[in-house]
Design goal:
Nuclear Transport Factor 2, Chain: A; 2 domains
């Protein structure tokens, strides 16, 4: 079987060309690479200049743009990415919203598993969009925000048939019983989160399997049992191997450059029972939306590490440009000696893109990169 391709999606708000590649047909910022570089050892990756994402997974972002942003909408728009880790669809949707709506949107990126939610927080921080919040709650936890979201994107856990080429474990774990268990679990997820979608709002539902029971049949179940109308299937990109199914679009590994993906959508027709104040704080976000510049500890104002990575960073600290070798030492969390650093807090950059903060004390720079983002490889 042909080897899986490697693809990235550029961050249009960080002004970086990124690695060269062939354009992804359904993603203006997507690139399919000729080979897999060491992303871990690329400072531009850590600066959030691009995100490593399978090209088939980018089709979810295409459907979002096609259904949600194809109108002359100026917002405001509230979006929930329900099963978001590691952050590919979140960063894609955030960029698309910002290109059309500016700051006039809120994207809540949720991951129920705390370990995966931590990875999601890091990737959202690197991407740098201040209109993204991160939560870690069960789908039913959003029911209290009744009618609070205009769009819910649910890339649900599935039997993983579309990942066989990439992940041998997916082959070992697959069985007809697994398909049935996954289909039932997916229906529970949709039913639990359904109250959070406003009447007239849009659910974008996706999996990485080919199983009808988890794809078309589940979207048809949701339309019939929860109250929705399935969007007409779009016959797009057939020349690239995208198939139209009863209720969505299917991308098969080996036919398209990326892995397997299925995407469909429906509009909620069920009446909204109530609509109260949208209070995301009740869900105790791991990462709030907005720009957090830092906090005082005593008389010392300590900058938030993520502020340097934000596209809202105002350039209000001295900066020191690093060469590649020194940038990797910074990302390894080594202590640095930087001749050009001003006293106190400095932002270190690579190719003009911020990587984070150091604090220069007596010619030695304490490295303020969060421990969890440290490169573990030898550099």
């Amino acid at each position: 079987m042909e080897a899986a391709s490697v693809s990235i999606r550029l961050n249009p708000f960080k002004g970086c060309a990124g690695p060269d590649g062939v354009p992804v047909p359904w993603s203006r910022h997507g690139r399919i690479l000729g080979s897999r570089p060491s992303f871990t050892l690329d400072p531009l990756f850590h600066a959030g200049c691009y995100y490593v994402q399978d090209s088939s997974a980018m089709y979810v972002g295409h459907i979002f743009r096609r259904l949600i942003l194809s109108q002359d909408s100026a917002g405001p728009l509230r979006v929930l990415d329900l099963c978001a880790s590691p952050g590919g669809k979140t960063t894609d949707i955030a960029a698309s919203c910002r290109e059309q709506l500016g700051d006039n949107f809120l994207l809540v990126s949720n991951e129920v598993m705390r370990a995966r939610a931590s990875v999601l927080c890091d990737n959202v921080a690197r991407w740098g969009d201040p209109c993204v919040a991160v939560t870690s709650v069960d789908p039913g936890g959003f029911a209290g925000l009744e009618g609070g979201f205009d769009v819910i994107v649910a890339d649900v856990p599935c039997s993983g048939e579309g990942m066989f080429r990439k992940d041998p474990r997916a082959v070992e774990e697959w069985s007809p019983e697994t398909v049935k268990l996954c289909a039932a679990r997916q229906r529970r997820i949709l039913a639990d989160v359904w109250p959070a979608l406003r009447e007239g709002g849009v659910l974008i539902y996706s999996t990485c399997t080919y199983e009808d029971e988890e794809n078309d049949a589940n979207l048809e179940w949701a339309a019939s049992n929860l109250g929705g109308e399935i969007f007409p299937v779009m016959d797009e990109f057939p020349e690239y191997g995208v198939e139209a199914t009863r209720a969505g679009n299917l991308l098969r590994a080996g036919t398209v450059p990326g892995e397997g993906q299925w995407v469909g959508a429906l509009r909620k027709t069920a009446p909204q029972r109530s609509s109260g104040l949208f209070d995301l704080g009740r869900l105790h976000p791991l990462r709030g939306a907005g720009v957090h510049k830092g906090e005082f500890k005593g008389k010392d104002f300590i900058p938030d590490p993520d502020y340097a990575l934000s596209i809202a960073y105002a350039g209000d600290y001295p900066s020191v440009e690093l060469d590649r070798e020194t940038a990797l030492k910074y990302l390894h969390r080594d202590t640095l000696v930087l001749a050009g650093a001003a006293p106190g807090y400095n932002v270190v950059t690579f190719a003009g893109h911020p990587l984070g903060f150091v604090k220069n004390i007596d010619s030695r720079c304490n490295n303020l990169l969060p421990k969890g983002r440290r490169i573990l490889m030898n550099v």
